[in-house]
Amino acid sequence: MITEEFLMENLSLIMPEKRFRHSVGVADTAEKLAKKYGSDPFKARIAGLLHDIARDFDDNEMLQRAKKFNLAVSEYGFAMPLLLHGPVAAVMAREEYGITEPEILNAIALHTVGSEYMSQLDKIIFVADKIEPNRRHAGVDEIRRQANKDLDAALLSCFDESIRYTLKLGCLLHPTSVKARNSILVDQGSFRK
Ligand code: FE
Ligand code: FE
Asked: 110-125 burial, b if ≥16 CB within 10 A, otherwise e?
């Protein structure tokens, strides 16, 4: 198994500085959340460090990699290749960094659009990505507070916020994000209003 020291050193050399700082922030935040909610802190750190390793590819490179890795690319992936940076990063984590734990690979793959079926670690990485210390967006402090008390509430806020933001930009809304968001409400039994 790869050591964290090796990963930190390697990523600090290949990632743009801002992205590297963000990734370390996600790893730190995910580790804390993992301890709080009973997930494996080491797996959380590794997933946090690697979640954005494909984030800086341009559209062409992203689609090329997705093809090379035999990933299923939907119409949304073709329209917005950036959405593929989670699934592409998960394959890179396996092929280039030797990560074999499905929990880590899934959490990396799902961090962009989410899923209706998210494990505890998937949720932790998704939320940590939005609230790590370098994040400054409006509403982030409230989500940080929620993440300390109720992971699902924080996750719901993350989806709500990213959906709102996508609508504001007039960008394509991925239906999986909407399904993921709705599934939290259904789980909570709080959808009849
Ligand atoms: Fe990302
Ligand atoms: Fe990220």
From this structure: bbbbbbeebebbbbbb
Distance in angstroms (rounded) separating the CA atoms of residues 45 and 192: 37
Ligand nearest to the CA of 86: 1
CA of 85 to the centre of ligand 1 (A): 7
Query: How far apart are the CA of 152 and the centre of ligand 1, in A?
Result: 19
**Domains recognised in the chain with CATH numbers:** 4-188 (1.10.3210.10)
Which amino acid is present at 101? E
Burial bucket for residue 108 (CB in 10 Å: 0-12, 13-18, 19+): buried
Tens digit of pLDDT at every position of the chain (193 positions): 789 999 999 999 999 999 999 999 999 999 999 999 999 999 999 999 999 999 999 999 999 999 999 999 999 999 999 999 999 999 999 999 999 999 999 999 999 999 999 999 999 999 999 999 999 988 999 999 999 999 999 999 999 999 999 999 999 999 999 999 999 999 888 766 5
Q: Measure the CA–CA gap between 74 and 76, rounded to whole angstroms.
A: 5
